[in-house]
């Protein structure tokens, strides 16, 4: 199965630092904005799933998808369609 959409997801990610730090340093920590591009595998009210690689050969013996990411919708700022291809019938 080839997902038909290539999308760019802009999302807010957690930032952490596991070291001792001053209060002034803590005040500078803020979430970071990320952009991820991939094939849209699934979009629900709770999350968006992208894959970066998929197999085109249905006879391959390996798993069909690579580089999968699930981003909670609460973190998503924007989903922009980069490409859409109709599935061949």
Report the uncertain regions. none
Radius of gyration: 17 Å
Q: Share of helix among residues?
A: under 10%
Q: Overall mean pLDDT score? A: 89
- Strands of the widest sheet, in order across it, are 4-3-2-1-5
- Based on Cα principal axes, name the global outline: elongated
Please give the count of helices.
1
> How far do the termini sit from each other?
13 Å
Our count of domains comes out at 1
User: What is the SS-derived class?
Assistant: mainly beta
- The amount of beta strand, in percent, is over 45%
Order of helices and strands: EHEEEE
Largest sheet: 5 strands, antiparallel
Describe this structure in words.
With 89 residues, the chain is mainly β. It has one domain. Helices cover 7% and strands 52% of the residues. It is built from one helix and five strands. The chain has one helix at residues 23-28; strands at 5-13, 32-43, 47-54, 65-72, 76-84. The chain has a five-stranded antiparallel β-sheet, with no helix packed on it. A hairpin with a 3-residue loop joins β2 (32-43) and β3. The protein is elongated and about 55 Å long. The two termini are 13 Å apart.
Write the layout of secondary structure elements.
Blueprint: E1 5-13, H1 23-28, E2 32-43, E3 47-54, E4 65-72, E5 76-84
Antiparallel strand pairs: 1-2, 1-5, 2-3, 3-4
């Amino acid at each position: 199965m080839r997902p038909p959409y290539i999308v760019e997801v802009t999302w807010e990610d957690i930032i952490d630092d596991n070291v001792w730090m001053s209060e002034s340093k803590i005040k500078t920590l803020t979430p970071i904005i990320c952009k991820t591009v991939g094939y849209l595998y699934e979009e629900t009210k709770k999350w968006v799933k992208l894959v970066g690689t998929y197999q085109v050969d249905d006879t391959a013996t390996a798993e069909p998808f690579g580089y999968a990411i699930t981003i909670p919708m609460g973190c998503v700022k924007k989903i922009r369609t980069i490409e859409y291809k109709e599935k061949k019938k």
